[in-house]
Amino acid sequence: MKLTLKRPMVFFDLETTGTDISRDRIVQIAVLKLFPDGGEEVKTRLVNPGIPIPASATAVHHITNEDVAEEPKFPEIAKGLAEFFRGADIAGFNSNRFDIPILVEEFGRCSIPFPDPEAKLVDVQVIYHRKEERTLAAAYKFYCSKTLEGAHDAEADVRATLEVFREQLEKYDDIGSTLEDLHRYSNSDSIVDYARKLMRNDRGEIVYAFGKNRGKRVLDDPGYAEWMLGGDFPVSTKNVLRRILASGESEPPGGKGN
Length: 258
What we know:
Layout: E1 9-16, E2 26-34, E3 40-46, H1 55-61, H2 65-68, H3 74-85, E4 89-92, H4 95-109, E5 121-123, H5 124-131, H6 136-144, H7 154-171, H8 179-186, E6 198-200, E7 206-208, H9 222-229, H10 235-247
Parallel strand pairs: 1-4, 4-5
Antiparallel strand pairs: 1-2, 2-3, 6-7
Helix pairs in contact: 6-7, 9-10
């Protein structure tokens, strides 16, 4: 099944200092833009996270503090990176749960909204896990019959993700071929913010998704929302809470965390 694009699609992958969406930072980013005519443009660069890279993270992606010491920090590349994503749909491997939330936080610190509200989000891992339940390296082996060399290098991972995605389109007729179909397949309508601290109940109302107030409407305990706004919670979550409190409605306009 051939994918027909109406506008560009950006596949991307991040390497980071860790897995905490609020606290950790990007150390490498690779973006591969796929154009409707089949052309590609790839950009890969190291990023100085501004905080030490733990040895445990270096053991995974092999990027050291020395490697990034002379590299730009995220605010220095933010405008150019946002422009690269502008007007494009977005895809990655585990991107909805990790890479996009991390990028939302980094852009949020620079006061740059991300992603565009109209962007369709496709998570290749969601498709894979619903069909086969594996990791990226296993997905690459399963779909492409190749061994993934250089795993946890951002560009190697993003290229592998694109190859896996193309094979998924050929293999599965029921996931759709338009970005609208793939967006619906990759995303749950119950999720409200990228960090998944909020969700929708069966009536479509926004409720807390964790802690003592799990399942309670935000508007039924605005004090808890105020506590979250003053705490160490992700930017995307706080943006949704601010809109709910300001509007007095459980359905904030503008999509997830924008």
